Every structure is written in structure tokens, then in C-alpha cells.
Amino acid sequence: MRILFATSEAAPLIKTGGLADVSGALPAALQALGADMRVLLPGYPQVLRALPPMPIVAEFSNIPGFPASRLLSGQMPNGVPLWVLDCPELFQRGGGPYQDEHGRDWADNARRFGLLSKVAAILGCDESPMDWHPDVVQCNDWQTGLAPAYLHFSPNPAPSVMSIHNIAFQGVFPSHLLPELGLPWSCYQPDGVEYYNNLSFLKAGLFYANHVTTVSPTYAREIQTDALGFGMQGLLRHRQHELTGILNGIDYDEWNPATDHHLHSHYSADDLSGKAANKAELQRRMGLEVNPDIPLLGLVSRFTYQKGVEVILEIAPQLIEQPAQLVLLGSGDAGIQSWAQELAYRYPGQIGVMVGFDEGLSHLIEAGSDLFLMPSRFEPCGLNQMYSQVYGTPPIVHATGGLIDSVVDCSDATLADDTASGFILHGLSASTLLDTVQRALAAYRDPAVWQKIRQNGMRRDFGWSRSAEAYLAIYRQLTGA
């Protein structure tokens, strides 16, 4: 089974969010199951700097509407074969993959990711200059959403799968760009790429792909509703029999408290003694009182409305009265950032805040916290709630998307059958979050119960193999294999 995995980011080469983690780990898991993989990734400066010089294996000089580009052949750090789309005019620039140094979207993002989609489609049909031809083209989020549309109009195309990692990001651009992108006006209609008088890359993928997946079973149901469909719910309800929710996995090479090089001390489900040393190190690093008996609540997140961070800040004064400590790492909305920093200033030694991102600190927060806060309003899958359980840090999550699919709420019944691994709140508000934290702290104060919850989470299997098998089943169905 030959799979072309087209993506706009892949860890550890280039990362802005969870898509990169999936794009780094899922192809490796598919390869481990016997799939013949190629990852297609734009040639950002960060990618080219991270890899040794790569040979040119194809050139694309005559794609109407796009600058000349070339295909470089290399390898991901995990050994998965990699094709890098090198187009200096579109990808060799500062800032990030989607925005400049000031956080503004690149004005030519439609051309940039139109080219990525077009090359994915060329490689997936009879126009390909390569000897290797995919059986399936796997597309991810709006940045590769035009690939299924291009494939639809290509000779002898491979079937395509469109994966939604977050339906809130839709790649919406003015409709007048359609000819420049090389698509016929015939596809500019509700049964096509048209989206409220604009062009949507994501809708193109959802309409033209042979199958649609998303990153958890619950999210697959939620995006068919008016509340969380973000305008795509009608199309997704129409395609519900070709829509599958597959829970993401995590990379145990990166996230394992027994081997994690970011930690002060290693530990495991059988020997949790090292966790206390990580808590003390986290308290010191964040300027908190070093006290093993005060429960420490951690958060690593984008500071956005989606993540419910402002609800945590609203109840922060009540949290520290429990007593408890609070550590926050993240960035995003300027108002939320200022509010968090003001609380840290007002409650020194009790609340620690770092605005920005620090990979090592994010691992230490997972290991050193007693509880992990993740009250997202919606969460397609989420990974931190899985990391938290693996690190013996029971998560407090809102009942949505992949959170409810991957956390087992603590109750008498789940304690009795050894499945309790966290705490779930229903309906996000200051009062429901505070009530759930207090319920979690009551469990924390019972050493036997707390030990059981932590060990239950640490012994769960969040590896990628089961998810990769589910993707392979879809690929086999599409190809008749």
C-alpha cells in the first residue's frame, strides 16, 4: 500500500500545533505496519536547515499560475521517506508557515498552499514525473484541501482521504482567485468549492475527497451539528457514511516519564517516587513555594477562547484558597496573557506564568503537576490530556471531542473497575470548573485513591498502532485491497 501523506507541517522539522505531531508520528506508524510512505512537506527555511542537502528528483516549471518549483528527496528524522517541495518564492521567508513575524497571515497563502495541493495531486495521478505512484493521497487540513479537487479533474487519479484536524480553520479566500489556482469555474458552486460567496480550501477537500476522517469519534459527531460544524455541518451530515473519527495517538519516544530527557527525575507507574522531584523542580523554576503537600495544577495551551483559559483565570483566586498552586504556559490572546501575568504578580509564590512556548518546560509541567487543566470549549482530539495520563497527572477536561473519548471520569464505578483516569466536567462555566477541581482535590487527599487514578492513566495505551490500523482499513476499502 503506497501512501502519499501531504501536510503543511510535521514534527520535529516544523511545528505550530497538533497537526505537526500527527504528521510526524502517523506516517511512521503506518510504515511500521508495512505501508510504503512518502511525506510531502513545503520547503520552509526551518525544514531545509534541519536536513542535509537533498537531491532534486523532479521539477515543476510549467504549472499555470504558479512559480517554478522542484521536489527534493530526503528522510524524516524517524526514517520515513520525505519529499520536500522547494519553491523559494513561496516558502523561503521568515516568520512561520502561515504568518509573518508580526502574526499576520501571508497575503499569498492561497498560492502557497494551492501549489502544495497541486503538486500532491500531480504526484497522485498519471501526470506524475515519478516512478513511485501512490495508491491513496492522504490530505490534512485546509492547506492540502485543494488536492482532492485537483485530483477530481486529473487523469487516472488515486483516491484521496481528507483529514480534519480542526474544522475552525477553513482556508477561506476570495473567489476571484479560482482561475489563478487552475480550477474551473464549474466547481464554484455549493456542490463544490463555493463557501458563502468565497472559496474554501477545506470545503473543497470535504466535497471532493473519497473519504473524510477527523481526529476523534466524538468530534466526528460534533462537526455535524450547528454548534460545532462552523458552516460545514450540512455537507458533513450529507457525507456521514463516508466520515470516520479516529482518535490520534501519542509518540512514546517523545513522551515517556521513564526516559524523558527534559525531566529532573524519571519515574514509572511501578515507581512514582521521581514525580515528587519533578514537582519540586517545577515549583522552583516557576517561583512557587516549594511544598510537596500543596496540590499543583498545570496548564500548557494556546491562550484562546477555544481553550477555556479565561475560565481558569476567573476562578484562580478561589483555586489558590483550596489551597492549590497554579502554573500556566502558553501564548495567544493579548488580553488573556495580560490577565494571567497580573494574577502571577498579585499572587507571588502561588501562581506562576510563562508567556511563550518552551518544549522542556511543557514536559516538566506534565510531570511536575498533580492535576492538568484542559477545559476546552471544543477539542477535536487534544494530546495533552493523553500526555497527562501517561505522566501520572490526572487531567480535568470538558466533555467534548477527543477529551471525552480519551479520559475516564473518576467515580465509584470506575475506581472499582480500575479505569478512572481523570475528571470530566459537563458544561463549561466558572462554577462547573471549580466544582470539578474540588472533586479532584478530594480524591488527591486520599492517598490510596490518588495512587490508583494515577496508575490507571499511566497504564493506558495511547500508542499510534491502533489508529494507524484504522487508517489502513479505510485505504484498503478505497482501493479494494
What characteristics describe this protein?
2 domains, 18 helices, Rossmann fold, 6-stranded parallel β-sheet, 18 strands, 481 residues, 9-stranded mixed β-sheet, alpha/beta
Q: Order of strands side by side in the largest beta sheet? A: 3-4-5-2-1-6-7-11-12
| Average residue pLDDT | 97
- Gross geometry: elongated
CATH superfamily grouping of the largest domain: Glycogen Phosphorylase B
Low-pLDDT residue intervals, each spanning 5 or more residues: none
DSSP, total strands? 18
Overview in brief:
With 481 residues, this protein is an alpha/beta fold.
Topology:
Elements (H helix, E strand, L loop, with lengths): L1 E5 L11 H15 L3 E7 L2 H6 L5 E5 L8 E7 L5 E6 L1 H4 L17 H15 L12 E5 L5 H7 L7 E5 L7 E3 L19 E2 L2 E3 H8 L2 E4 L2 H6 L10 H6 L4 E3 L27 H13 L10 E8 L5 H12 L4 E8 L1 H13 L4 E5 L3 H10 L2 E4 L9 H7 L4 E4 L2 H6 L5 H5 L6 E3 L4 H15 L2 H12 L6 H15 L2
Parallel strand pairs: 1-2, 1-6, 2-5, 6-7, 7-11, 11-12, 13-14, 13-16, 14-15, 16-17, 17-18
Antiparallel strand pairs: 3-4, 4-5, 8-10, 9-10
